[in-house]
Amino acid sequence: MRPENYEAQRQPPSHEYELNIGPNHPGIEGNYAFKLRLHGDRVIEGRADAGYLHRGFEKLMEGRLWIQNLAITPRICVPDPVPMEVSYCLAVEDLCGLEVPKRAQYLRVLQLELSRLASHLFTFGGHAATTGMYSPSFWGVADRDLILDLFEELCGGRVYHIYNIPGGVRRDAPAGWIERVSDTVDYLETRLPDYDNLLFKNQVFVKRARDIGIISQEQALDWAVTGPNLRATGLAFDVRRDDPYLVYDELDFDIPTEHAGDAWARALVRRKELFESIKIVRQVLAKLTDIHGPIRCPIPNPLAWNVPAGSTFTRVESSKGELSWYVVSNGGERPYRTHVRGPSQMHAVQVLERLAVGARIEDVAQIMFSLDACPPEVDR
Amino acid sequence: MAEGKELSTWLDNLLTELEGIEIRRKSSRRLRVDVAADALPALLELLRGRASYVHLSAISCVDWPQDRQFELVYHVWSYEMQSLVSAHTRIAREPGLYISVYDIYPPAAFFERDIHEMFGIFFEGSPDMSKFILTEWDGPPPMRKDFDSEAWVNEHFDWQDYNPVWLQELVAQGGGIAIRPDEQRFSRKAGDEPIEHAASGSASGNGGRQ
What interface predicted TM-score (ipTM) does this complex get? Predict the structure, then answer.
């Protein structure tokens, strides 16, 4: 909200004060404000204030063709855009009954996992920065950039790829790209011990992150926490394995868990997921050299595409948690209604407001980043 | 473990306890349930309490003005059964009042607040119905089908000439931007003076798309 519309509490108790964090602050990767009421260094109450990134995507999508909406979907979550594209495409494919060729499915999984790697690398950096350590953020962003280079070569876009379309992907991998992905992944694996030494064995970080923002498993289930934040409480749930989509049921990967449920456990789960994603990428690369064929099934003229009436609910596992679309078609050339449910809609609002209570002020930014919330997902 | 006997016995129990619900199996992990508005809280309580559907994935709202109804869809997931139930219900568009399921599913608070803001449905018993995303908005609920973004823009904002230096230079060279009148998406109010675009004069004839 605009500053002139902010109403401070009229007569606060003398020991209390209010502090507005944001909309720009180190705790989150976007514009998102958090209003705190404090007693000394302790938070008494926290209120999330969203809306700085609201672009009305759901309304916009009702006025655009099915194919045009692909340009909107990745913009709903900037650090991890691929799951948005893929899940929207899955919804359209489900409504039309399209069968996506195997090669396209593997290419999608490859993208999804590369995007997960990029997003986790970004999150480490941010999380470390909230504890005053800036080297991991430089390293993380630099390594993420290598993945963005791969995306650029694949589809021309570094952040917004728009590489998926309903029915498959736009074009096949360029010559030599598979080898370059393999090289990059090998390089990233050699970096993992460095990250461990820099961050995960670093007592400065460990001591700051332990016992901060604890979520018990019961609370996590009550508050609809998903993704790495849920796995950090000990529940091994992953949409990729338990509600499989694409070809994840043909791939071999583990679901890392931790039990403490604090910021440290969440960081550790992401660290372990890096390794699992690398494992998946290698399997997919091996499959891609064997599986040839079309990368897209035949689709109608995309500019005059009447998607059959119906509704569908698709969900995928993004790097932040469960991401789902509810898409309704009335048989027209534009969606009748699209509703996106991002994991951050829970993490950045209800969960954050609850976890902030009782925390010390210097830990608030860390709690926010350890939840890995993405403000544009909340605002849409 | 989700398929087969377990799910079907659960379904039977559900059917016997609630009347007037329609169940459709969409796939092995997706179930669609159509239920009357007054029976929905009972259904959700049953799903959560007795059938392990503890995770409220989302509440979606769809506006059907021709039926004068809102459709509310509650998507709930069971970690044990590994299946997702979408419970569809319809409420009257006027006055747009419904009951909150916050006491059954705490995450409903966010979705209900969002639907209240975007569709104008009031959820009785929801902990917070204050504005969240559209803090400065005082117009009608924008996600309703009868809310016309173009009309709102025409009514509340002035059109401005867009004539930057680079465009002037382009026009001086005989180029410019050409927009066919029938392609202009944001049509202006009837009776408006035509806007003098830098490109609309000499440039529109020879520039732009052919």
Answer: 0.87
